[in-house]
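Following up on my earlier thread - several people asked me to post the actual chain instead of describing it. Fair enough. Here it is, all 69 residues.
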Amino acid sequence: MTGPTPATPANPRICPNCDGFATVAISSGLGRDARGHLHTLTVDCRTCSGTGTVRPRVRTAAVDVEVTS
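Reply from S.P.:
Thanks for posting it. Predicted structure:
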């Protein structure tokens, strides 16, 4: 017999700038060292700081928004 389904947190929003691939290795262009290893730099996404997700936006109620024409 199964019990009640536990509450799960909302799905995290994937970062629009990196599509969830938050950290990348970029070749430095220096070629390979004496042992054959490629020189690379590890870079994190600036928007999500390497997490791959962003916080959901806070929605404002229509009452709080003033519209002028």
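The CA atoms of residues 29 and 39 lie 7 Å apart. That should answer part of your original question.
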